[in-house]
Amino acid sequence: MSGEQRFKYVGTRPIRHDGLDKVTGRANYGADFTLPGLLHGHIVRSPHAHARILAIDTSAAAGMPGVMAVITGDDIPKTTARLMMGEGGFDLGDMGDNLLAHDKVLYQGHAVAAVAATSPELARAAAEAVAVHYEVLTPVMTIDQALAAGAPILHDGLTTKGQPAAGVPTSPTNVAMRMELKRGDVDKGFAESDIVVERTFTTPMVHQGYIEPHACVARHGEDGQIVVWTSTQGHFNVRDCSAGILGIDAAKIKVIPSEIGGGFGGKIPVYLEPVAIALSRKAHRPVKLVMSREDVFRASGPTSGTKVRMKLGAKQDGTLVAASASLYYEAGAYKGSPAGAGAMCAIAAYRIPNFFIEAYDIVVNRPKVAAYRAPGSPSSTFATESLIDEIARRLNMDALDLRLKNAATEGDQAPYGPKFGPIGLREVLAAAKAHPHWTAPLGANQGRGVAVGFWFNAGMNSSATVSVNTDGSATVVAGNPDIGGTRVAQALMVSEELGVPVERVRPSVADTDSIGFSDLTGGSRVCYATGMAVIEAARDAREQLKARAAKMWGTDAAHVGWDDGTAIPLNGAGDRTPLTVNEIAAKLAHTGGPVIGRATVNPPMAGPGFGLNICDLEVDKETGVSRVVRYTCIQDVGKAIHPSYVEGQMQGGASQGIGWALNEEYIYDREGHLENPGFLDYRMPVASDLPMIDTVLVEVPNPLHPYGVRGVGEVPIVPPLAAVANAMRDATGVRFTDLPLSPPRVLEALATD
Amino acid sequence: MPKLHVQTSVNGDTLDFLCEPAETLLDVLRNRLNLTGSKEGCATGDCGACSVLLNDRLVASCLVLAAEVDDQRVLTVEGVARGDALHPVQQQLLEHAGLQCGICTPGIVVAAKSLLDHNPNPTETEVRFWLAGNLCRCTGYDKIIRAVLDAAATMRDDRSRVSA
């Protein structure tokens, strides 16, 4: 159906409506907001990775002039509540304990107390005056340490959920969850394989790296009414988490989202808002909390460090017949790593009749991990796509041909259960074969790598309204913070439905009081699910406009058609002059009043996405320094609403993945102290590290969306880890299995090879 | 400790402010002068989101003491556009979709303007190294670099039209 659609506005590249404010410095982000009487908060953080809190003495701090409130974990109720979101949810007890520790600190930087004072300097001084007495415990910093017999236990009450391994006690344990995926007979599959490759891969804990630190302002009124201004990926989520943790009605809290300076999943959890509310409640004044960059690294994000043991078996002709894998993902201080998603994504690109995958969620004394773009998929895919590359080399097959031979397609049963609908993996692989990059000659010391990547994408809840103004312009209101151009995409959808030019459509992100519930900006769901709500709301408005035209003509609405912003008479309407939106809008007050289209959606599914990257890497074998010299991203995007911002998602995700592959990692000492909590030592790609990043948009329409849209934001970070490592293998002859491919590691491997 | 009285020029406006001796230019711009366009991403001079021009020289305002700007000239992102005329860098960033979340954009605008003030015809490599002090996590830099190169071309065209 969607494949034949023709669009007038969708697919064009207008300037975004919020652009001017953002290039002139006028746009207001989390830390930019202020209020009369504002107090400044500061959080006291643990210097230890693992310790029992024996006592907290706040008296000295509370007695300092200008200090208006001091709180500890006692001010954050312990709860067993959960907040559901999509298939998963948040454990509000863990989240509350992460906000301000109750009994133990579980990572260096864990919050233990908070103060509010009349200036940031006073707040900092007061925080230093809070005396916390600890019993220091042995930290558990790695997967191996967490699994070792007799390992220190982070949570006394933790038991292994899911499908615990046979013969292993489920408590006490640091394993929060184990799950299995299996099909066919994996032993038979390996026995029938002509070649079997098996290796263990590791990826480091990395941070999302958004440039804007977390920041919020909260005001708690004496009547219990609360307003929060915050930078978040989901203000409804902030409201509901805050209400659940503090034990108050969601209706008491209004959350107003600021512009958001990047998130990538890291601005989904709440870290500050309930603390700011509790401080404001005690101080009777509004309170602002802003994280430092060091706080961001120590106590927000990151994503799991992982260990993946994987084995693949193939026939001589390249047909994959068996796969087995054991995935170990660090959850950080509380359960909830994306190990399950990692397992479900690991071999989703391929038809493999026999497989067995197990995944472990493991707590360690590091910050609780947050989502990071396609959470779980990059690490398991790094293993799969490295081994696929190895099979191609062993069989002397073209790396794309091997993938094409095994690629999943419509009707195949995904390893995680459902049958795939129309998916674009084969089209993506074909586009790669046709791309000049694939056959371009390489220079000296250069190598080429390729890898594919998969992500489910999400649906979930969204709301939207579309109002038609009396001058024929329109306003679209939705509930998703705009992190990368979703406002302009929503305006384009309204233009398409109403025929109103995009510059006459005002897109707006509304607070929690002003639009229906909307799940967060994440899961690559905004253009897809919120877009669906916007399209349905615009169609609702259009039907109302048609009814008004019918009224103006004195006919029945069934006799009114619509063509590009104009009501046209159908058979039965008689001889009527078509009415434009402007003409109908001008008469709204006389034909029944305002027109507001509305829609809420909760699609349970989304169209899955596949992408492919080609990476050319140049390696200096004397220093171990490598450089990406050419990079191409190809992705099935369903339908690109605003192609520039779709390309931007692909380029940005690739850049993050390149950073993950080459440089980024959390470095801890033995005591569990983070040694690189700043941008100087946590080395993200800068402009001079990268070449232009070419993009190819493949459009295989997603039948679940009226325009064929697929989520595009997450897939781009999945292929780069293996694409870069495969390029390194091509350039050096060495198969690297541990990221990042930093110069010392490369040099060491080249020396021992 | 008594506050310091500083007289300076910000975006062409002559103004004065009081500040603590240890206060940074970034904190004064944001908290005392309400110029929140300059952003704090790190406070250690690594991210470039707080970039301003101090007497036409590109600096990280988080590493400048506010007291140092006494009797100097400061240009922030708020002063780059003139009236309704955006600077070509700003216009090209919009045309190229060279921003996603937009938090790094003020620093990129100031830094790129500074580059083109110094070098009207930079190569791609020169743009990349000049902007290496401005972290962007969203875009992968591609569209930012193209925007700056196109802004340079626009400005050269304008200059040659004027001289013709």
Please describe what this structure looks like.
The complex is a heterodimer of chains A (753) and B (164). Chain A is of the alpha+beta class. In chain A, 28% of the residues lie in helices and 25% in strands. Chain A has 3 domains: 168 residues, Aldehyde oxidase/xanthine dehydrogenase, molybdopterin binding domain (Aldehyde Oxidoreductase, domain 4, 2-Layer Sandwich); 188 residues, Alpha-Beta Complex (Aldehyde Oxidoreductase, domain 3), CATH 3.90.1170; 299 residues, Aldehyde oxidase/xanthine dehydrogenase, molybdopterin binding domain (Aldehyde Oxidoreductase, domain 4, 2-Layer Sandwich), CATH 3.30.365. In chain A, the strands form 7 sheets. A 7-stranded mixed sheet of chain A has the order 3-7-1-15-12-13-14. A 6-stranded mixed sheet of chain A has the order 9-10-18-17-16-11. Chain A has a 4-stranded mixed sheet with strand order 19-27-28-29. In chain A, helix 19 links the parallel strand 28 and strand 29. In chain A, helix 10 packs parallel to helix 11 and helix 11 packs parallel to helix 20. The radius of gyration of chain A is 27 Å and the shape is globular. The termini of chain A are far apart. The model of chain A has no long low-confidence stretch (mean pLDDT 97). With 164 residues, chain B is α+β, with helices and mostly antiparallel strands. Chain B folds into 2 domains: 76 residues, Beta-grasp domain (Ubiquitin-like (UB roll), Roll); 76 residues, Orthogonal Bundle (DNA polymerase, domain 1). Helix content of chain B is 36%, strand content 15%. The mean pLDDT of chain B is 96. Classes of the chains: A alpha+beta (753), B alpha+beta (164). The interface between A and B is large, with 58 and 57 residues.
